[in-house]
Amino acid sequence: MNRRSARPFPYLSRSFIFLKQQICFLLALAAAFLALPSAAWAEGIPVHHLEGTLHGFLVLSNQQGKVVAVGDLIQVVDADRVTSHLLFHFRDGSIDEETTVFTQHDSFKLVSDHHIQKGPFFHQPIEVSIDVPSGEVTIHSTGKDGKEDVKTEHMDLPSDLCNGLINTVAKNIQSDAAETKVTMLVTTPKPRIITLAFSPIPEAAYTLAGFKRKALGYQIKFELGGIAGVVAPMIGKQPPNLQIWITTGELPTFIRETGPTFEDGPVLNMQLAAPVGPIAYAGTSHPPTHH
Q1: Residue 257 counted as domain residue
Q2: CA nearest to 182, candidates 262, 110, 263
Q3: pTM (2 decimals)?
Q4: Is 289 within a domain?
Q5: Cα(261)–Cα(211) distance, rounded to whole angstroms?
Q6: Is 263 a member of any domain?
Q7: How many structural domains comprise the chain?
Q8: What confidence tens digit (pLDDT) does each residue in 226-255 have?
Q9: pLDDT tens digit sequence for 73-88
């Protein structure tokens, strides 16, 4: 047998070797990808930083920098239960109000969430109440004919539900996680559970009284799942990503969030604000009296 007949399919042999090399490369790449740190909090959001009592001042501005609403975030703590009340007053008289109750023993777990949006700023007024222990979701909405519609559904709500807790999630993400996923209940067109995927974005600079500091950033993608997740991008109904920034260091603090506040709504910037004043009166211990 000559050397040529010993390998009757030399080109096929070389192709097989090349294919085998490619398969090995792809398997190695997949293994490396799977080895990247990630987190899925099906049992609740692990507590790395306890929430405390606070009163935060916030503003909502459009992409041109015009302030459209001012808000207050008031948070109180009773044992391991926290009640967070966020209220925005819009220039046109609209209201965006959310009251969130959650526990923070070993993990953050939503107890209830009550969200109201009403007024001319919103395309459709809505009021949503979520009671996690009972699995009851109640939706008050007003149709184009002005009639109010109330619907109540019982759902199997997951332990990592993050309605009203997006900032809390961002502050407790593992710093080395390539992606962190939690769930959220949305109500359009009907109540259903979707996934929020948090992934890190490059650090950004912010200033404090003229001094530069670094902020951690996360991009939040809405994963609709099912047929809706496939069709939505095709028909332009995929919700835009949110972006959120928090301070670096021992105790992370919310700085800014960018994204819409309702479906098909404008992109707004929500960020911390500082009150200005009161006016200091020099040379007297009492302010002047106005008649």
Answers
A1: yes
A2: 110
A3: 0.77
A4: no
A5: 31
A6: yes
A7: 1
A8: 444 433 443 346 678 999 999 988 889 999
A9: 999 999 889 999 999 9
Q: Looking at the domain assignment, is residue 54 inside a domain? A: yes
Three-state SS for the chain is: CCCCCCCCCHHHHHHHHHHHHHHHHHHHHHHHHHHCCEEECCCCEECCCCCCCEEEEEEEECCCCCEEEEEEEEEEEECCEEEEEEEEEECCCCEEEEEEEEEECCEEEEEEEEEEEECCCCCCCEEEEEECCCCEEEEEEECCCCCEEEEEEECCCCCCECCCCHHHHHHCCCCCCCEEEEEEEECCCCCEEEEEEEEEEEEEEEEECCEEEEEEEEEEEEECCHHHHHHHHHCCCCCCCEEEEEECCCCCCEEEEEEECCCCCCEEEEEECCCCCCCCCCCCCCCCCCC
Length of the chain (residues): 291
> In this structure, what are the phi and psi dihedrals at residue 43, rounded to the nearest 5 degrees?
-100, 15
Domain that holds residue 144: 45-272
